[in-house]
Amino acid sequence: MARADDLIDRRSLRRKVSFWRVVAALAVVAAVAVASLLTFDGETGGEEIARVSIEGMITEDHKLLDLLDRLKEDEAVRAVVLRIDSPGGTTVGGEALYEAVRSLAETKPVATEVGTLAASAGYMVAAASDHIVARRTSIVGSIGVLFQYVNASKLLDTVGVEVDSVKSSPIKAEPSPFGPPPPEALQMIDSLIMDTYDWFRDIVRERRQMTAAEIAAVDNAAIFSGRQAIDLKLVDAIGGEEAVRQWLEEEREIPAGLEIVDRKPDSEDGLPFALLEAGSRSLAEALGFDAGILPWSVKAMQLDGLVSLWHPSR
Q: Taking the CB of the first residue and of the last residue of the chain, which one, N or C, has fewer CB atoms within 10 A?
């Protein structure tokens, strides 16, 4: 009987502990939601310099584009600083951000502060701003376009699979993973890549006010340190936040001492997703679920279409 009573007591205790874990997790979620509403979007009510972070893979992020559009109309925002730390991404995403930054720059000063990396589409966005500041060891450049595809024909031969197709044209649905592309398809892809590359190179030349010889020195997809980029006209100054402030105050007459406020895109439900995620993870763990299997744990993304993306060779 004693053992049976002990088992009953232990089960009761476990139920109570689980109950209070759930209560605690829900309290965390509620607290995060309230705090998020109170601090939504980082607005301060007074004049400020808005800082927008552009990090990781660049895609056509409509919420980020909406934020840049809102900053144009925000009278409290005297200037905008783009904090870029990105290896690039899709050319469409870079183009959309480039156009949004140029539109924003028509209404107020926009400067870029490069972190570790602003390459490919990341540099494309930086070039849209009025002034670029980077650290000596920052990486910039990689002016180029990439189109990658998988050729799994050898694998299919190994496993004994043959894929047949009937096409209206040799270039239909090419390149295909089922075999090497025909010459016509390679010509098509080359034309597509070079057209986009010419556009990318031309906007860098225009924005950085380069001569033909100057753009030719950097348009081969090479990367450069911030110190090298000064002489190559890819960067305007060496430094960080203070260098950006100095330019804004001296060249654009922005009042000294204005607070730099981080402004972030809206999340799906109007709350900062990262904070809500933390509370939700706590709830999942309290309920005994593996938080790692939840949808937000999947960080990989697929980049479709042309890509302007730098990555170190292995």
A: C
